[in-house]
Amino acid sequence: QVQLVESGGGLVQPGGSLRLSCAASGRTFSSYGMGWFRQAPGKEREFVAAISWSGVTINYADFVKGRFTISRDNAKNTVYLQMNSLKPEDTAVYYCAADPWGLGSPIGSEYDYWGQGTQVTVSS
């Protein structure tokens, strides 16, 4: 069992930055792939970024490439999402998720554990 708690969301102006954190419980965090997904009002959940258990494999959605960076610190049981050059269309609830296969898949159905989400609002 893995419990995930996101933090770091908030209100930011266009062009600004935020860093999201996802703290995980459990001793097996280092074996899980970790992903970030988001869901905007009236839209389906979509993949944002993912990282394999080792950190070697990283995947990004096309719309965040060059702006967002995913990283993990297995010693701290934490995964991060650094978000730069934020746009109003990035407004959404951001969720982190844990993938027991360890691969860091972009497919949401491969994730067994999800956090409660943190709101990110990009607005002037």
Detail the topology: elements first, then pairings.
Layout (H helix, E strand, L loop, with lengths): L3 E4 L2 E3 L5 E7 L8 E7 L6 E6 L6 E3 L7 E6 L4 E6 L8 E8 L13 E2 L3 E5 L2
Parallel strand pairs: 2-11
Antiparallel strand pairs: 1-3, 3-8, 4-5, 4-9, 5-6, 7-8, 9-10, 9-11
What structural class should be given to the helix and strand makeup?
mainly beta
Number of helices: 0
Order of helices and strands: EEEEEEEEEEE
How much of the residues is beta strand, in percent? over 45%
Question: What is the rounded distance between the termini?
Answer: 40 Å
Q: What is the number of beta strands?
A: 11
Low-confidence stretches: none
Major sheet details = 7 strands, mixed
Mean pLDDT: 95
Question: How large, in whole angstroms, is the Cα Rg?
Answer: 13 Å
Query: What is the helical fraction, as a range of percent?
Result: under 10%
Bulk shape: globular
How would you explain this protein's 3D organization?
By secondary structure, the chain is mostly beta strands. Helix content is 0%, strand content 46%. The chain is built from no helices and 11 strands. It has strands at residues 4-7, 10-12, 18-24, 33-39, 46-51, 58-60, 68-73, 78-83, 92-99, 113-114, 118-122. The strands form 2 sheets. Strands 2, 4, 5, 6, 9, 10 and 11 form a 7-stranded mixed beta sheet that branches. The chain is globular and about 40 Å long. The N and C termini lie far apart (40 Å). The model has no long low-confidence stretch (mean pLDDT 95).
